[in-house]
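Q: What does the predicted 3D structure of NAD(P)(+)--arginine ADP-ribosyltransferase look like?
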Amino acid sequence: MAVMAVMAAWAAVLMTYGVSFAKDSETGSDDVLPLDMAPNSVDDMYDGCKENMFEVQTEYLQDEKNKDMIFKNAWDEAEQHNRKLYGSNELKKEEIIAIYVYTLSGDELYADFNNAVRSQKSEYKTTFGYYALHFYLTSALQKLDEEQKAKGRECLTSYRGVDKKFSQDVSGKEFRFGSFTSSSAGYKIAIAFGRKSCFKIETCYGADISLYSKFPDEKEVLIPPYEVFKVIKIEKRSEEKSLPCEVVYEVQSTRKTLSNMNCALYTHIYMYIYIGVGVCLFVCVCLACYCIFFNKSSTCHLRSINFELFQITHTDSDMLIQNEMV
């Protein structure tokens, strides 16, 4: 009777947490998914360019809201909540909203965002649709992780159950989840019930987001796509009948990160700025050379400090040439 009571209790727990922890795409699929380094992940951690990114996010956020009404509605709804937290801690308003959007999102936005983060590395500099949400979520997790470490909590233990099958020949191998990955600090994986794959996770870069979540009782720990883990143990129910899942993976953070796309967006944006400045300087030099060598009676001057207009006055022909620099 005691065993039945425990199993019933954990069935209820998994029904409560299963939607948020197993709502990635292909739920219930029999396809075997890899546990690898997620080579196509949008894993930008903005190390060294975060402050510069804050200066350009306003444009991206508005543009993405204009293009995606589901995202716009989620962001606008999230903006009305957690107002009491704005300015009360280290997180910026947009970071608080981003966490709420992530936990608020229905299956369509949640799945689309996570699939994009997991697979759109090649589109990151061009057509990726979630620059603002990705940036603010990443920044929020990093700040919360710093707060945890300042309180002496270097790593967190969390648990994740999903209706998917993963590679089983991965013992001792390193991998990344490759997207923002939901887990919970609120239940023990050892007696989880009724899932194909379960994970016991030690994360050293994930953070407890329950204070900012739409569902604070879930005690959600969100793991960033760039954290590297190592599989230290795999247990199978076919070999151990008492296991609640077909396969139980125990994984530990290597305390390393891998960000193949670090500051890639920042570099891409500012490359065009540098090219523009270079073109301006080139035009200045060309105009100066023209004045000096071909028209000595001319006077050439920079009309505005922000390169809006260049003017050459020709005394002989009274000709005016204006070049507008964008």
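A (community wiki): The structure tokens above were generated from the sequence. The two ends are 77 Å apart (CA to CA). Residues 1-23, 189-194, 271-277, 302-326 have pLDDT under 50 and may be disordered.
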